[in-house]
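Appendix B, example 12.
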Amino acid sequence: MDIEDAFAERYRAVQSRDRRFDGQFFTAVSSTGIYCRPSCPAITPKPANVQFFTTSAAAHEAGYRACKRCLPEASPGSPEWDLRQDLAGRAMRLIREGVLNHGSVEDLSSRLGYSSRHLHRTLLAELGAGPVALARAHRAQIARNLLVSTDLRLVDVAFSAGFGSVRQFNDTIRQIYAATPTEVRQRVGGNRLAEDAEDSRLCLNLMLPVRQPFDAEGVFTFLAERALPGVEAARLQNDELRYARTLRLPHGSGAVEVTAVRKGSGWKLSMRCEVGSLADVGVVLARVRRMFDLDADPAAVDSVLGEDPVLGPLVHQVPGVRLVGTAEAQEYVIRAVVGQQISVKAARTQLSRLVQQLGTPVESTFEGLETLFPSPEEILAGVPVPPEAGELNPERPLRLARRQIRTVRAAAQAITEGSLVIHPGVHPEQMRAQLLQLPGIGKWTAAYLALRVLGHPDDWMTGDVALVAGARRLGLLSDAVSPATTHRRLEQLAARWAPWRSYAAMHLWRAAAG
């Protein structure tokens, strides 16, 4: 698509006030000096006065301020940063994780494997702003959420959002919103909470913008079926769904509870986090958004899968399916390795025993949360390799075969030593190559972790028996061929669902469950 066609497409979205594009791009108007979300109810500006930006940071750098009417910073994030695997996309994922709040641009570029100069040049060319400006814009978004959702002191809002000083916070809010932090807060009344928990931790309620449709029942059910007692807790009711879990954060342990409440034909999401340091609030928010795939574009996914003769009826029945991620990347490597060749129920039993014996006790005000999942170091110390012969200890943390225990330990060792790099900015192929070098880890595990840890939208788990079961239930496969042929045949069929094969897998898993 050339520049003129891209402009025309975006302008049509603005003319129709299409909410599906909110957060995907920003509309700046030269005659007013403001930028808006595409669905802004204001009179549509003339094309000659319009300039489109991929990021709000680029609009800030060009001298525009946020619209006070449509509040563009309150829209869901762009799905582009979860889809793109180039340097710009991976850098944006790490910036949203708050890497620049506690480190330098050199630290960010080092994690991505490039020089800081090349990173700055790439982001400026691709996104219209450098890494510092992009991080500043992201802090402003978090700060606005905190200002309107909590009664935190302004100084606490500043440091929770990742600003290095109150002055920097004040200057940024004034520049972007053309208002002081106090004025931003006064525009929204009620429904604010910031209170001390019983263990002197801070509890905050925050809003979670999400594009509709959102398959809340599917996401929360998926998490509930795999929840580990003590580490996770879930409650599923008709019109209110709850999922909570403990977290390892940069400044200590924490916990988060996400609630979805049915509102008409959609769902309203919010989260309550419990942290020991305000500096971890932004980290929790980023992890939750990735875990629940809140920045996805369901219209783009459903438009492709909905045209498939087999998946189409499923998409029509359950629109807005999401990729269920994880808030703890290192933890999920261990969980995936344990569950490689056993059922979800059996893996949950094994992992629950591991948590009970090796998990670290923590205090939380959230019901059902009392343990942190063991760290890789704790697993190495507490999960010995079973003897080759003789009676096995029935109380051992993992009752798996010797070779499976070795694989678990190899994964924990690789994470500890740094030879297995797991973070949102890693390229899927890099992570896949590192995983396949470990003994006992195959293509299925690598693909599954790309889906769960990185949110990769176009992966396929060849060899997954649940996918085969779902495909057979839908009439895609017959029982008259060998298992190996069946898996190859399904992999070939899945090619037609690109670039959303991971989302297609979620539909097949649901079909397999009946």
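The mean pLDDT is 91. Residues 226 and 348 are 6 Å apart (CA to CA).
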